[in-house]
Amino acid sequence: MTDQQKIPQATAKRLPLYYRFLHNLHLQGKNRVSSKQLSEAIKVDSATIRRDFSYFGALGKKGYGYNVEYLLGFFRKTLDHDENTPVTLVGVGNLGTAFLNYNFTKNNNTKIEMAFDADKEKVGEVIGDIPVYHVDELEDRMGSISVAILTVPVSEAQKMTDRLVACGVTGILNFTPARISVPSDVRVHHIDLAIELQSLVYFMKHYPMDQDEE
Amino acid sequence: MTDQQKIPQATAKRLPLYYRFLHNLHLQGKNRVSSKQLSEAIKVDSATIRRDFSYFGALGKKGYGYNVEYLLGFFRKTLDHDENTPVTLVGVGNLGTAFLNYNFTKNNNTKIEMAFDADKEKVGEVIGDIPVYHVDELEDRMGSISVAILTVPVSEAQKMTDRLVACGVTGILNFTPARISVPSDVRVHHIDLAIELQSLVYFMKHYPMDQDEE
DNA sequence: CAAAAATCGTGAATTGTTTCACTAATTCTA
DNA sequence: TAGAATTAGTGAAACAATTCACGATTTTTG
Prior knowledge:
2 copies of one chain form a homodimer. By secondary structure, chain A is of the alpha/beta class. Chain A is globular. The mean pLDDT of chain A is 93. In chain A, α1 crosses α4 and α2 packs across α3 (46-54). In chain A, α7 links the parallel β7 and β8. Chain A folds into 2 domains: 9-77, Arc Repressor Mutant, subunit A; 85-195, Rossmann fold. Helices cover 39% and strands 17% of the residues of chain A. Chain A has helices spanning 9-27, 35-42, 46-54, 68-78, 94-101, 138-141, 157-166, 193-206; strands spanning 32-33, 66-67, 85-90, 110-117, 126-127, 130-134, 147-150, 171-174, 187-190. In chain A, the strands form 2 sheets. A 7-stranded mixed beta sheet of chain A has the order 5-6-4-3-7-8-9. A two-stranded antiparallel ribbon of chain A has the order 1-2. Chains A and B meet through α1, α5 and α8 of A and α1, α5 and α8 of B. Chain A binds a DNA duplex through residues 8-11, 34-36, 45-48, 50-51, 53-54, 58-66.
C-alpha cells in the first residue's frame, strides 16, 4: 500500500485542497474546469496544478481542461475517500471542542469516534455527536484507532503521547507547543498556534508582499 | 525595515521555535547549548540549525556551542520581541475562544487586543482579559491594528476579510476553509484544520515512516 | 470547415532547502 | 600542558519544488 510511485510531499499536501474544491464545483453542477480557473480559486500556480495532476497520469484533455466528475472520482479513490478513518481526540478544551463541533465526516474521510478528558465535568457529555470519556478509560476504549488529535495542556503532552503510542496510535496531530518524542514509526504533524501567529508577524515585517507570492 | 539580507523562508519559519526553546533553557538556568542538543529537543537536523543561525553571522563558538543568553538576546532583537504587535480576533466560537484563553503575551511578541463577534450573547464578555465587541463596531474600534485572526464561519470569511482589509489589516491568520481573496500587499497564512487532518492520514498511508524523517 | 483560441502535459531551467563532510578553533581530560 | 574530544561554520553536493515556455491537441468561432 506504499503507493505506486511516490508523489512529492508538497503535492500530497495539496491533494485535500484540490479534492475539496472539486467537490464544491461538483455540487454547483459544474462539469468542466481548467488549471487556470483552479489556480485562481485556490491560489496555486496553474503550472503547479498541472504538474501535480500529472503525477497521477493524463487526467485532462488539451484545449478543454479537466472533467470535474472524472477528476473527483479519481481523487476519491486516491485519497481513500470511501473509507472513513477513525480518529480519537484527547483534551476537550476550547480547541478540542472546536474540533468536535467541526463536521468532519461530511466531505472528509475522517471521523472523530471518541474524545477523552480528565475533567469529570466533561465526561459523559456528547459534543457534536461524539462521546467524551474519562481519560482513565483510554486504554480500554481505543480499540484499533490509529490517529489521534492532541489538544491537551502542554504539561500532559508527552505523557498522553506515550499512552497513545502504547495503544497503537501511529499518527498524531499535535496542537501543543511540546515537541513530543515518539518511536520512529509514528508520524507527528505539529500545529503550533503561537508560532503560526509569530511567524505571520515576522513575515509581514521582513517580507512585505507585492506580488501574489505565497 | 525590509531586512538586512533576506533569510530563507524555511529558516524564518523556524525562528520562533528556536526562540521559545532558548527561552525555556534560559529559565532552567542553562547557559550553554550545542546544535546537537537543540537538534534533539526540537527535532531539526543539527546542520540545518547551524546553517539557520549562520545567516545571522557567527553566533557560536567552535568546540563550545552557543551561549544561551547571548543567542536569546540576539533573537529577541531579530524577532522584535521587545515590542508587542497588537492583534485582533474575529469570530469568538470555540476556536476563537481557544485563542483568547491562550496566554500569548507571555513569551510572545503578539497581544490580542480585542475580539469581535456577531452574537449579542458574547458581546460584552471579557475572555482571558480580552474584551469582545459587536462586529458592527469593527471599523470604529480597530484603530491601527494590522494583524487579524479569522475564526468566523466560512460563509462570513470573504466578507469579514474585505472589512478587515478596509480597516488597514495587512496580515491575516485564516482558520476558515475559504481561500480568501486579498489585495497583493496583504499576507494571508492559511491553517485549515480539516486539511491538516486529512493530510496526516494521507501521509500515514502513503509515506510510512521508519527513520526520523519529517 | 478553416482559422483562432484554449489548454494540457512536460522537458528543461530555475529556485529553494537540506545534508554531507571537512576545517579550524576551542574545550576538556589526565 | 599535550593529546583527545567537541563543535561551529561552510563549500559543495544532493535533493525538492516551482516555474517557464512550448509543442500537441482539442474546442470554439465565424
